[in-house]
Design a protein that fits this description.
Low-confidence stretches: none
Largest sheet: 2 strands, antiparallel
Helix content: over 70%
Strand order of the largest sheet: 1-2
Order of helices and strands: HHHHEHHHHHE
Structural class: mainly alpha
Distance between the termini: 44 Å
Number of helices: 9
Number of domains: 1
Radius of gyration: 18 Å
Length: 199
């Protein structure tokens, strides 16, 4: 069922959102997509930075030590889960403003499925080359925004006009969250969680 939903978001997003909206379950069931798909960028990032590495110019590949990469991967995974839950909670909190009254698990489910393209593009972390990740990451980001704008009206049972405004508000919350995550990253690097490089 889970794989069917993930592929459906790419092949028939509107129908799939309707099917996801009909799903029922508790908070844990709502978090399943993020719990599973969130492993992709974390694990692939660990493998890519410890085994493959990246080159700067014509030099030797730069890698991160396994201990350092493991710490970063675990924190990355935790941050993904916190971000998904936070966005779901914010959607639930804002829903009444837009004439909707969804359950918290419904909002969490929405927040867990929206970043599916970004989770899947995490496979590119196996080869952590900046330009390649950027080339693949930009279309994935665009499709994630598309899923946001198509998913909100369906999952929240509101009109497309209200859904557009609601989606824009959620997008702004997501952007603020991204800036917050960058600030937390800088803070964590400053207190000793910075990557330890090997040449």
């Amino acid at each position: 069922m889970f794989i069917y939903r993930v592929t459906g978001l790419f092949l028939r997003p509107m129908t799939t959102w309707e099917e996801i909206h009909k799903d029922e379950g508790n908070m844990l069931a709502a978090m399943v997509p993020a719990l599973i798909l969130g492993l992709i960028p974390a694990v692939c990032g660990y493998i890519g930075t410890t085994q493959t590495g990246w080159t700067i110019g014509a030099g030797e590949p730069v890698r991160i030590t396994e201990d350092s990469a493991a710490t970063i991967a675990i924190m990355y995974y935790i941050i993904i889960q916190v971000a998904v839950f936070s966005v779901g909670w914010m959607v639930h909190w804002m829903a009444k403003t837009y004439g909707s009254n969804p359950s918290l698990p419904t909002c969490i489910r929405l927040a867990a499925y929206i970043p599916t393209p970004l989770f899947l593009v995490g496979f590119m972390q196996l080869n952590p080359v900046l330009w390649l990740n950027l080339v693949v990451g930009l279309p994935a980001t665009a499709y994630t925004v598309f899923l946001l704008y198509t998913g909100i009206p369906t999952m929240m049972d509101i009109s497309k006009d209200r859904g557009f405004v609601f989606s824009s508000a959620v997008l702004m919350v997501g952007m603020v969250g991204l800036v917050g995550m960058l600030a937390v990253t800088v803070f964590l690097w400053g207190i000793g969680f910075e990557p330890v490089l090997t040449m």
